[in-house]
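Hi D.,

Good news: the full-assembly prediction came through. Inputs first.
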Amino acid sequence: MLDEALLSINQVTTLERWSLRQAIDGYARHGVRAIGVWRDKLDEIGAAAAAKLLRDAGMTVSAYCPGGLLTAPGEAAFRARLDDGRRMIDEAATIGARCAVMISGGLKDGSKDLAGARARCLEGLAELIPDARAAGVTLAIEPLHPMLCAARSVLTTLGMANDWCERLDGGAALGVVIDVYNIWWDPNLVAEIARAGPRIAAFQVCDWLAKTTDLRLDRGMPGDGVIDIRAIRKLVEDAGYTGHREIEIFSARDWWRRDPDDVVRTIKARYQTAV
Amino acid sequence: MLDEALLSINQVTTLERWSLRQAIDGYARHGVRAIGVWRDKLDEIGAAAAAKLLRDAGMTVSAYCPGGLLTAPGEAAFRARLDDGRRMIDEAATIGARCAVMISGGLKDGSKDLAGARARCLEGLAELIPDARAAGVTLAIEPLHPMLCAARSVLTTLGMANDWCERLDGGAALGVVIDVYNIWWDPNLVAEIARAGPRIAAFQVCDWLAKTTDLRLDRGMPGDGVIDIRAIRKLVEDAGYTGHREIEIFSARDWWRRDPDDVVRTIKARYQTAV
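Then the structure:
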């Protein structure tokens, strides 16, 4: 049996149906005591009110998502993203999030300059790290699946995330998110998870459906796909990670359409059988 | 100006409209003198008849596609795929193809055993290499984009293809295909293309559309997407490759619907401006 205290649900999984308050109540109703908080849901009530709700429910925030998108072209857009990053750091500190998840951003306006976009993102992270450190927040950079390189994330592999962490030398203010969906295909997976070691700030879980129909919104419930989730979880925990296992499912055609209470019940069952 | 003699078109680009005979005639009509041949189109007339058509038209076969799919579970299915591989080698020899493109295969029947599927594919390639060598054919293994890991290709990176080539030690009977669509996102791209060096048996080109809608059939015409194709071509040629630049576009919603003569005209123009 996995420890239920380490089960978290990222609220994107019930995003369409439940507000932050409803998600906190709903997860707690089923005995789930940790949540990944989504920024636009928090914006509806503000960080201070959210912090009170979370505290009153005894809910741990395993991750606060998403920030970053630092590949914006032009100085004004880049500065605006840094301002957003600083707001996010404040919010993450207010709600006591274990980490603030940073997505690098994709290629903007048809640009082909992948190396330039990567350099820009590194530059942005370097600017944000002192603020994160001052606030006691960990910025967790998340490599997304390479199919999202153009649209969302020029950071495409865990190896690259590890390289960035080494270059940025952010200490406790910088970590990585490992989401099985993004990295399961990687031939360097075993070595790079071990290398990530104490940098692993969050571990996210869903499944890759054999008949995937969409590049972003067709993720599967753990156990419904082809990822050997348990094997990857063991690698992550062998690397020293002792935090939550956060279920995060983007599923426009299936799970987002279901009764959220049923979704949470299914997650609780699959946590034991497939994670 | 790029040398037009090195422009090839993979017939999958006009697959829905043109038979092999029509493609040979159509490409030749526009002065294109090389073709990537698709197996089910060749099957319609047989290898000997195809060889005569190609010879009469003075058409070079830059690649013969696709074979492999060696991750089949169970001994009988695996043996059947090896038999298919041997037929493909014979056909490739008959039509004088520069290489026979081998796709590794995906995860079958919901299997989660990625390492096992990779080992199985390696085993199959090791069995086929002596036949390829005897026939004077190069088996060109092609890493596909990681988004196809479950469906088509457990071989997900050029680095892994290079590792396999080193382990299999196939000499001239074994090479790699570099298709910009599959590898453009890879942070190790520069090093792995250089490492591939004389192993590069084919170079395929299309573009990644910023708003991609499908995991397999929504590739773009060179110049319509975000890949810095010219930069990758230079890396490939700096690594010693002197062969064709083969345009290969899977495009169910766009290019497959157009008049094939217009498609070929567009390719010829984009070959100079975007490749």
